[in-house]
Amino acid sequence: MPPHTNESEMSVSGLSLQGEASSLLTFSKYLGEYSSAHRRPLVAGTYAPTPVFFDTMTDELDIPAIQKHAVRLAEAGLQGIVTQGSNGEAVHLSRSERQLVTVVTRKALDNAGYTQLPVIVGCGAQSTRESIELCRDAMASGGDYAMILPPSYYRSLYTGDALVDFFRDVATDSPIPILIYNFPGAVGGIDLDSDVVSKLARHPNIVGCKLTCGNTGKLARVAAAAPPGFMTMGGSADFTLQTLVVGGKGIIGGLANISPKSCVELYNLHMAGKTELAEKMQAVVARGDWVVIKGGVVATKSCLNSYFNYGGYGRKPLPRPTQQQIEDVKEEFEELLLLEQFLLGGKNEKDIHFGRKKEFPQLVELEQLLAAAT
């Protein structure tokens, strides 16, 4: 049974989920609730690839933490959530666990009143067949869109045409629209260029891309060449402004798990034409994002544990941070979390962190400008 559940059985939209026994349920009987007619639109803005949380003793899914986190992000104003992304440790989950994470995320959002918030589900796999199966699972579990990494195990055998064919085949047979996920660091260095992504963008069931490669020139080319409505998204919060300036629609960034309000505010400032404020906020956000980029999901969960009292650890064999590493991560995130606190409080002058001006002069200057602009 998932840890921390208070009942011997948990019902999710008519499905009885009894621990690992839920793994054996046939999700086909659940398909009707999440038909394409009810698909939620993707809206420009900020999205978070959510971590999956585990019980610190048993390594089993921590369902309440997964649900709590999803609602916290929605309350901060995010435009959507991603499950089974790199932060979501999809490679550490069984197929049934992947389904369950998406189901409980969708239900948590619905129960909190965020029924129109879309859920994107990571569905990349090493074969075309399995990727399509994961897309079907995603729809059955309440996902609105699938996000697909290119296969990489037989990297030396994949020509450019093979990868194009992979995405086209998955998109053609997927029951939900897909986004291309370009993350060279996760797939042995495979880096889809702008010609490939722009070509794939013309497929009617490929509706966007997440470019974690950080190549803003590529992002600009894709955004210019893609058909109207195509969601060209940056893959990290540290280049939010660069993404938006060259025509991107927003970001899908891991930092939004820690400071969702700051990431949303940065997007909103740019869209409101407040360039100076946006640039100053981007600097604070980029410093915080560097901690996530260096430490990955281990640092993200460490920060959540330190500041929000939930998060746990990555599933083995991911290492648990030492006490010194925990303290280092907490310290490195402090400036950004002070900004998050200020924004959550409503950007009031009384909440400016004047007492921390010596340590964080740029933060205090930013808070003063934000308070004056409110």
TrEMBL record:
Top-rank taxon: Eukaryota
SUPFAM superfamilies the record matches? Aldolase
Fetch the SMART domains from UniProt: DHDPS
Record CDD domains: DHDPS-like (cd00408)
Q: Which GO molecular function annotations are given, in alphabetical order? A: 4-hydroxy-tetrahydrodipicolinate synthase activity
**Cross-referenced InterPro entries:** Aldolase_TIM, DapA-like
PANTHER family with a match to the protein in the record: 4-HYDROXY-2-OXOGLUTARATE ALDOLASE, MITOCHONDRIAL-RELATED, DIHYDRODIPICOLINATE SYNTHASE
What is the official name of this protein in its record?
Answer: Similar to Probable 4-hydroxy-2-oxoglutarate aldolase, mitochondrial acc. no. Q5BD77
Q: Which organism is it from?
A: Pyronema omphalodes (strain CBS 100304) (Pyronema confluens)
